Amino acid sequence: MASETKIVNLAEEAKLAREGVKAAPSYAFTSICKSLVAGGVAGGVSRTAVAPLERLKILLQVQNPHNIKYNGTVQGLKYIWRTEGFRGLFKGNGTNCARIVPNSAVKFFSYEQASKAILQLYQQKTGNEDAQLTPVLRLGAGACAGIIAMSATYPMDMVRGRITVQTEKSPYQYRGMFHALTTVLREEGPRALYKGWLPSVIGVVPYVGLNFAVYESLKDWLVKSNPFGLVQDSELSVTTRLACGAAAGTVGQTVAYPLDVIRRRMQMVGWNHAASVVAGDGRVKAPLEYTGMVDAFRKTVRYEGVGALYKGLVPNSVKVVPSIAIAFVTYEVVKDVLGVEFRISD
Known about the structure:
Strand order of the largest sheet: 1-2
Shape: globular
Distance between the termini: 9 Å
Order of helices and strands: HHHHHHHHHEEHHH
Radius of gyration: 22 Å
Number of helices: 12
CATH topology of the domain at 2-19 and 96-314: Mitochondrial carrier fold
Helix content: 55-70%
Largest sheet: 2 strands, antiparallel
CATH architecture of the domain at 2-19 and 96-314: Alpha/alpha barrel
Strand content: under 5%
CATH superfamily of the domain at 2-19 and 96-314: Mitochondrial carrier domain
């Protein structure tokens, strides 16, 4: 099985590292590049497929409580279609897709390296060279990978959020990702590109960490227990793997969602042209100012209640299953077309 092979490989490389032996490259550079291309295409296709739900989620997160435009998933999508047309459903998606490839590459590579390092330390501490990664250790490796990937691509995520929430009635328009980056740098300074970074990093720990830990641990449990005869020849079916991924994604995003809301709101600080602060008559309302993450939490709960921390959770949850399914299928198809034998997750 893939997960068992992965654990064996990690154990062997950790043993070689302890003995001072330099392991030979496991995969050719070309195969790695093809795999990254396959993962990037899969990420772009899956994100584009759920782009309307992604945009609605962000609009629900940051909308002005005194000027409610989006009351739910169906109503919100209809409102965007009526006021902005088909293109409005996909606003900000180009920027979102542009960060998929580097984010995925850094995240998976960091996870593999963190897994090896953590396994090596764990084996040294326990004195057991055959020790395997536990769910907690996987959580730690996933958290490290998420923090590194988030930090590396955060400016792109920040401007994506701003492009996503602007509407035709916004007095000022970002023309694209590069224009948004340069404008924010010029008008607000370099630090503005990392507004909301702290809650993002804190949110990444349970989100990415739980994704890896729940997904791999759930697969291991299914293989060992084989309930309902789901395992055949030590392999899980595509449907079962999709279910494992959906479960992992649901758990991770539910736990980390309040931090994602706070992150989006902090990203809007200093920008008075967001959809969340433009009234129906075109007048701009003064947005709330936050001095930090704790202050953003406090003001959000005080003025809007605890429920505001979960605004947009429904469309976000609705997009989890199809996003994972499309990404998985697309990755497999592109991988077969390119003749890729290497799998990042193996």
